[in-house]
Fold these 2 entries.
Entry 1:
Amino acid sequence: MCGIVAYVGYRQAFPLLMNGLHRLEYRGYDSAGIALIDNDLNLYKCHGKVADLEAFVADKNTKGTIGIAHTRWATHGEPNDINAHPHFSRTKKLALIHNGIIENYVSIKQELINRGYKFISNTDTEVLVHLIEDIQINEKVELVEALRIALNQVVGTYAIVIISNDDPDTLIGARKGSPLVIGVGKNEMFIASDATPIVEYTKKVVYLGDEEIAIIKRNGDLKILTIENIEKTPYIQKLEIQLSALEKGGFPHFMLKEIFEQPRSIKDSMRGRLSLSKEIVALGGIIDYEDKFLKAKRIIIIACGTSWHAGLVGEYLFEDIARIPVEVEYASEFRYRNPVIYEDDIVIAISQSGETADTLAAIGLAKSKGATIIGICNVVGSSIPRATHAGSYTHAGPEIGVASTKAFTAQVAVLTLMALTVAKKKGTISRSRLFEIITELELIPEKVEITLKLNDQIKELAHKFKDARNFLYLGRGYNFPVALEGALKLKEISYIHAEGYPAAEMKHGPIALIDKNMPVVVIATNKGTYEKVISNIQEVKARKGIVIAVVTEGDTTVKALADHIIEIPETEEMMVPLLATIPLQLLAYHIAVIRGCNVDQPRNLAKSVTVE
Ligand code: AGP
């Protein structure tokens, strides 16, 4: 996600745009830029936060009553000065800012290169602004028409604003899959990723719809066209929401917002990498290393915390589908254990922040022993991706809540694609089975949406267990890492002690803890070991334990045994972690809120543990 804000009106644009960028920094903060028209089209941008941009332009001409500004969350191209937005067209008459992912930018870029265009950045955005100008010049059409034609050629998501030095009274915005809202003021107009930069100037807003283009004039004229060139009547609404809630998209906490973002973040983690029609799985980031996976005798997964739990799911995936032995290591243990590492080992390092010190150090150790390091990370250009040989970004967008939620499910989604990619290459999966799995993967975002409807039921359940002093989470197979993740979520934000355990292991000790005061969460969706999990539930019930069971919808057997039932949609066993984790995230969240805990910044925790 990136932050977009633009203005045209009677005020000096600069202070308003910079204030707007600060409001939007929660959407992304690895580089920032601004373009203003004051006779000339002046464009300034740099790596770093909005404050770094402010320092960078302190001695520049920042006058002008029309401008666009952008704070970046990199998806294509490292966070640096060149890849920051806005991007100039070749003639430098146009400047464009963009939030989203243009999936077919490589082919468009190649076509433009063949026609003599040169690119200075690695971004998909620069390709778009060159394409627009190429059409404008060659088709001899107005900017709006050139934009409309260009948007009919791109595949992917976009929220863009473009300005032209030839028309200093007009902002042009367009969106598909990424939000844009227009602020309607008195002799001034705004457009932004959300209403946070707008709300102090006007409460009158128009939410742009998908595949719509907005032509916004300084005098307040607003015209909306679809990309099929059909005019739409702007629907002006009155904003009721408070500024503080706006940054959280109307949610009370970033964590809840990010839990509810998972249909989109899982979709984005697979965007352009999965195609049912072509039965392909294509992880561009590891394409040059697929042969290394073929030769590997084992995979070592290193990570910490929630990322380690995702790694555990990865172990089941790679062994189950690609038939490669996997070891999952806590990075902190691995780095000091003097581990045996072979040159044909593949080491997969998983990290949301890309800055976890233990994981970074473990990578260094493995690299020094000649292993191939593959990264799975959420923050583009952070230290861990830069330390690996190759890898795939999770594209989950900024995760602000300290407790990781959408990053976990995005990591599991990318691990699934990676295991499928290797399995296809190794021939350990049949074409029909691959087709079955891809078909189900494409349905997961919708099934996550259905699972999120459990929110009210889980909130009610949370009231019953807010005073519990201990929780036990049990799962088998793919659900064992889910049990660990559910326990971690609860303990790190509600401060209730919780332990995740393999369900069968319970009788080797933890069963001594079971009594009427011990809530036991059991993920009981298994197919292969369903009867075994039933026995585990009976063992808990026999000792008066309270069972909260996560089951496949329609399950009546567990329903007859457990005290509370949480039903999730039916899915492939290997994809249950993508669904079963969600009610556990919600349970932890609601218990923590009821207990008055600081959900987004739990005590003693940091979002990125950059120290040992
Ligand atoms: C997860 O909820 C925790 N905040 C923590 O365990 C986190 O997963 C761990 O510190 C690893 O962070 P990383 O994914 O950024 O490397």
Entry 2:
Amino acid sequence: MEHVRITDPEIAELVVQEIERQRDKIRLIPSENYVSSAVLEVSGSVLTNKYSEGYSKKRYYEGQQFIDQIETLAVNRAKALFGAEAANVQPYSGSPANLAVYFAFAKPGDTIMGLALDHGGHLTHGWGVSITGAYYNPVRYELRPDTHLIDYDMVRDQAKKHRPKIIMAGATAYPRIIDWNIFAEVANEIDAILCVDMAHIAGLVAGGVHPSPIPVADVVTTTTHKSLRGPRGGMILMKKKHRKAINKAVFPGLQGGPHNHTTAGIAVALKEAATEEFIVYAHNIVANAKHLADKLNEKGFKLVSGGTDNHLVLIDVSPKNITGKVYAKALDTAGIVCNYNTVPFDPRPPFDPSGIRIGTPAMTSRGMGKSEMEKLADWMDQVAGNVANEAELNRIAAEVKELCKSFPAPGIPA
Ligand code: DSN
């Protein structure tokens, strides 16, 4: 902060406070993580000064001697890590990546199909308030009311009835493994494009703890900053036959110049994700989530689908006689950060729903393991019984801070 402290002390101070917050709290938002110092370095580099509309060797501006090499490295590493035939690393994030897919394969008014937002899907899977719900004709599939697992019969029935151009698979709040093969069969039956949005689980796929959608999907979109542990950005992996259409949709269809500092950060993160260490990390994310889920179950928490297969746990806190929002805010005061979330078939509104969503990618990056998950479950239970007890929440926050000291976060000075 040495330079910004002089130019803009106000912003410098706020950044320092955010560093301390990330250092001192247990971060359980399942879409967040800690990137390495190497990723931070290139993300904050002079690459931010360069415009590079186009693709390697085919740009609209000169001076691409090094940017071309950086982008080519990122593309090649993405293809190698995920076994993809082609990759585009330019989408600014997950939503633009999904938009590019719609733009490539559908016209406004065409039917698209995705998992309903209130059942764990994303806004860009055709939800009404999103451009994807407004410009296309969205149809939804849901979870089964008895198991809270994806209703694959409904996927098939809806697809046959509405014949969407694009089927979107993937979720933002689904704790179980998704069967990509069923989606691929259905897409084949109606000649639709299958797009898998693997944003939440990209790191798990890279580490071999979630089946990969790459062999069966036409295109796979992802953010790069969740379990994959890269900078904030997006990627599209695809079959070779779709490369032209997707590249055209990203640029010039949807975006201008790529964010080269992010592209370099993605390249570095992909190199990190191709290591043995990352495979161990991915396995630990899931082991931690399962252990935390078991401990929460023992304490009488009601988990959606009963537990987890991945990095994420969705909890219905209504049996504890609190709402998700009240609980999430109390947890935050106690130094444990999550987000409130609807649960399937939630009678409550999204801004004050019945559940919270937690996940283990960030705390696993700090090296936390089984015994820390047990402590965490204890604290979460104590918070649930003391949501209005400021003194108790502050006591827990102090204990959380003390624990965090033993687990330095990547990219953050101790
Ligand atoms: N905001 C992301 C999440 O938290 O899941 C999805 O884009």
